[in-house]
Amino acid sequence: MSKPRDWNATSYERISGPMEAMGREVLDRLELTGGERVLDAGCGTGRVTAALAERLRRGHVIAVDGSPAMVEQARARLGDGVDVRVADLLELELDAPVDAILSTATFHWIADHDRLFGNLLGALRPGGRLVAQCGGAGNVAALDRAAKIVAAREPFAQQLDGWAGPWNFASPAETEERLRRLGWVDVWTWANPVIVRPEDPHEYLGTVALGSHIARLDDDLRAPFIDAVLAELDEPVVDYVRLNILARRPS
Length: 251
Fold this sequence. Notes:
alpha/beta; 11 helices; about 40% helix
């Protein structure tokens, strides 16, 4: 796995409509009365966080992301009403536990899921809930194949060939086993496919799906790499498989 990268938050803000739509569906699974303390684990530019804050008029939202650029955009959007922080979810420490954790499109960027879910369990109050979605087994399979074909060619091979990639796509079964082993209860995991047809495939791939790939390339190779990957695809779509997670800390 590669080290965490900073994101192009301006581009992400422009093209992340599909991610926001998926995130809002996940938010709808989180039952709230309006006074809870909730952690948004991987807030990005804060588009889904803003919808969460709307539902917590008497509550408190803590939003974290590992990308300083994303956090800067989120702070500008959310203002002083939301506590927005740069933080690594593997190292996150809160001054008080939260009632719930929401996370969308984040966990598959983290290599150590045992440590991740153990740390999140400790951030919840007894009885607190986790509602999350990330990339699961089979996610972006066609895109991954195309990227590996292109990465093995010159002039990209020197910087990309042999690299396993930035993702950790777990299956529903292994995620359920992991959560139960770590002490979570009421665990429910499932997968669903989502096909995204980006309006600007080149920008979408460069910012979202292949952002970690091009971060390893010299500047003059980045656009040609994306063009070559697009040429390998039958059509410019992103074939997501989303891993959905519901779980609770024991009371």
